[in-house]
Amino acid sequence: MTRPEFAQQIASRRSTSPKHLLEPSPSADVLEAAAAAAFAAPSHFSVFPVRFVIIENRERLAHLFEAELPADADAEKHAKAAGKAKKGPMQIAVVIAENPNDTPRERMERSMTAGAALANFLNVLHKAGFGGKTVSGRAFRAPDGLYDPEKETLAAFIICGTPDEEARCAFAQPRETSKTFFSRW
């Protein structure tokens, strides 16, 4: 049995290391399409609990990473921290709305919605010819407006751009599938 084209497209997506991402980054039209797909993710909430923040000022993000270093951090550690903000042609923050009154189940549902939204977003980028990788977010002590720590969590960063030839070759390599993804009960 052959897989439908849609499933094959999704199955061909791979995380692409920032070192294999080049300009150009996704256009505004591609980002809009990715956001529309993300917002189609299943959600039990009346207000969609996920938003995406395009990082336009990488220096500002670099300052956030550096501000998390201990006071005695040397120049090498500062450069490494700042370098996190400069990986790839484009970075996008994935932010999840939080509610302190949520039950553990509601927190899990918010996370599941965020994961589905992220997958949809990345799949649209991939279909448009872009590569991307998701790296974990962090709790910044002073997030400088990137997100509201009282009401939101920075879940992840999407690092994206145009995959180089090596990365495009990796997309073409099929992954082994396994029946062990399923069990019966």
From TrEMBL:
Annotated region (Disordered), positions in chain: 1-24
InterPro entries: NAD(P)H_nitroreductase, Nitroreductase, Nitroreductase-like
Lineage top rank: taxon: Bacteria
A Pfam family assignment: Nitroreductase
Residues of the signal peptide: none
Positions of the Nitroreductase domain: 10-150
Name listed for the protein in its UniProt record: Nitroreductase family protein
